[in-house]
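User: Hi! I have a protein structure encoded as tokens and I'd like to know what sequence might fold into it. I'm fairly new to this, so please keep things simple.
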């Protein structure tokens, strides 16, 4: 049983303490904590108060805030991107998977494989599952959500012509997540996603531009795929997807959550 299943916090409307949940490295071990201001506390589980102080965010090395078994992604899920690409309006969500080996963290390096000429950023809102989700009704989706974090659905554009997207989406470091799981999001359909490349804004859109909302996506996915605590649903990327090259700093900022920052480098 995962840490999330053992220590599941109640749905947001019933919690006494809404939290920013992090994972950090301490003596070579992955630990779970709660951020209060700029300080990380031990995570006590359930609805308890944050525990003892561990250290400041500046002192600790943050890991990806969850360790998913399954990462399900929605493609072409923003109206602006559909218009930008001239694609037909989708009749149902278009799904693909990213492999867990792709997970990396805040301030980690995104590695461009030597064979790849065009590596692309895709800023996205990530949904972190909090309890086993199977055949979830769309109107009860939030009952199964632990919280939200920032994601970069890194893509090797060159490899899209494989006929499927496994290689293009799942190379090591192709799924940065962070900086933490924000549990205090009242309306995930009204968040601003801003992606910056070298400080220049390249994506700027509200999650209200999604074609299929989080409830619709979770209902569709969990008809066939059971999601477990700690699993992740990526909800699609707005218009403005483009290339990044070694030396670039890419930031995905989502209002109410925070900023995920990574540097691009060639894989040695």
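Assistant: Happy to help. Inverse folding works backwards from shape to sequence: for each of the 268 positions I chose a residue that suits the local structure. Here it is:
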């Amino acid at each position: 049983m995962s840490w999330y299943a053992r220590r599941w916090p109640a749905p947001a409307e019933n919690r006494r303490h809404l939290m920013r949940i992090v994972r950090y490295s301490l003596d070579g071990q992955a630990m779970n904590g709660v951020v209060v201001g700029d300080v990380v506390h031990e995570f006590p589980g359930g609805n308890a108060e944050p525990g003892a102080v561990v250290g400041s965010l500046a002192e600790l090395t943050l890991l990806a805030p969850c360790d998913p078994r399954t990462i399900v992604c929605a493609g072409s899920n923003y109206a602006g991107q559909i218009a930008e690409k001239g694609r037909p309006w989708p009749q149902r969500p278009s799904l693909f998977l990213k492999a867990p080996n792709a997970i990396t963290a805040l301030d980690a390096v995104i590695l461009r494989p030597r064979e790849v000429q065009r590596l692309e950023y895709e800023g996205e809102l990530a949904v972190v599952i909090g309890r086993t989700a199977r055949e979830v009704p769309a109107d009860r989706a939030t009952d199964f959500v632990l919280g939200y974090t920032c994601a970069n659905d890194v893509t090797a554009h060159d490899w899209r012509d494989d006929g499927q997207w496994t290689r293009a989406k799942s190379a090591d470091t192709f799924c940065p997540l962070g900086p933490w799981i924000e549990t205090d999001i009242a309306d995930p359909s009204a968040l601003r996603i801003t992606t910056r490349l070298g400080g220049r804004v390249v994506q700027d859109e509200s999650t209200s531009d999604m074609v299929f909302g989080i409830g619709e996506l979770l209902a569709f996915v969990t008809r066939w795929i059971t999601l477990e605590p700690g699993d992740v649903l990526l909800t699609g990327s707005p218009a403005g997807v483009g290339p990044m090259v070694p030396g670039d700093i890419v930031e995905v900022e989502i209002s109410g959550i925070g900023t995920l920052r990574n540097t691009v480098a060639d894989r040695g």
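A useful reference point when you look it over: Helices lie at 3-6, 79-85, 166-170, 214-221. Feel free to ask if any position seems puzzling.
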